[in-house]
Amino acid sequence: MSTSLQSVCVALDLGKPNYAVNLATLNKMNMYSYMAGFFSLLALIWSKLSFALTLLCISSGWTKRFVWFIIITTNLVLGANATAQWVQCWPVERLWDSTVKGSCWPRETVEQVGTMGTGKPCKELRHGNFKRRDADGSFNNSLFRRRGRRAGDAALEDNMERVHQ
Predict the structure, then answer these.
(1) 100 neighbors 112 (Cβ within 8 angstroms)
(2) What is the pLDDT along the chain (165 residues), one digit of tens a residue?
(3) What is residue 137's three-state secondary structure?
(4) How far apart are the first and last CA of the chain?
(5) SS3 assignment for 28-71
(6) Is the backbone peptide bond immediately before 91 cis, with ω within 30 degrees of 0?
(7) Whether the model pTM is above 0.90
(8) What DSSP string runs through 70-131?
(9) Shortest CA distance to 78 belongs to which of 38, 128, 51, 31?
(10) Which distant-in-sequence residues (6+ apart) come within 8 Å of 122 by Cβ?
């Protein structure tokens, strides 16, 4: 499902340079990108659960209890990450359409939730060093792509910055 939605996003100009993106389809592309990210997280949760259930079949004693602990914590963390994607703005449409009136969590909060969902604490997170600017002054979120964020986020952020300029 995620791959299909990302293919739709590519057809709607995802991945093209900012100057080549059709602004008329930007909101639709952003919506499909959020949906694709959600389904990617859902697939991640289910694949981890599937493997853990296999481990439950061949384990016993403390190992079985430990696998249950892993199943529960993984589902809680990744489930919270997937939920946070949809509750970070109200109304939800504000996620992909900046003209909709409403409110959103601060960008730093969203980035922290996304980074924590990867389970990898990082030096940049502890020191609050999230925002990096390239030489041309544009926002560079390579830290978050490297930490497991959706690849579509970079194009989404670039396009949103372009719309707001």
Answers:
(1) no
(2) 888 888 888 888 888 888 888 888 888 998 999 999 899 999 999 999 999 999 999 999 999 999 999 999 999 989 988 999 899 999 999 999 989 999 999 988 888 887 876 666 555 545 544 445 455 554 444 444 444 444 455 555 555 555 555
(3) coil
(4) 33
(5) HHHHHHHHHHHHHHHHHHHHHHHHHHHHHHHCCCHHHHHHHHHH
(6) yes
(7) no
(8) HHHHHHHHHHHHHHHHHHSEESGGGGT-TTS--EE--HHHHHHHHHHTTT---HHHHTT---
(9) 38
(10) 115, 143, 147
Number of domains in the chain: 1
d(CA 143, CA 155): 15
Cα Rg, the chain, nearest whole Å: 18
77: domain range? 2-164
Identity of the amino acid at 60: S
- Torsion angle of alpha carbons 36, 155, 163, 99, nearest 10°? 20
- Distance from chain centroid for Cα 12: 19
